[in-house]
Amino acid sequence: MPTISENIQALRAELPGDVALVAVSKFHPAESIMEAYRAGQRAFGESYVKELLIKHEALPKDIAWHFIGHLQTNKARLIAPFIALIQSVDSQRLIAEIQRCAFRVNRQIDVLLELHIAQEATKSGFAPDDCTAFLATFNKENYPNVRIRGLMAMASNTDDEAQIAREFRVAADYFDFASKRFFADDGSFDTRSWGMSGDYPIAVGQRANLVRIGTKIFGERRY
Ligand SMILES: *Cc1c(COP(=O)(O)O)cnc(C)c1O
Question: What share of the chain is helix, strand, coil (3-state, %, to 5)?
Answer without folding.
Answer: 45, 20, 40
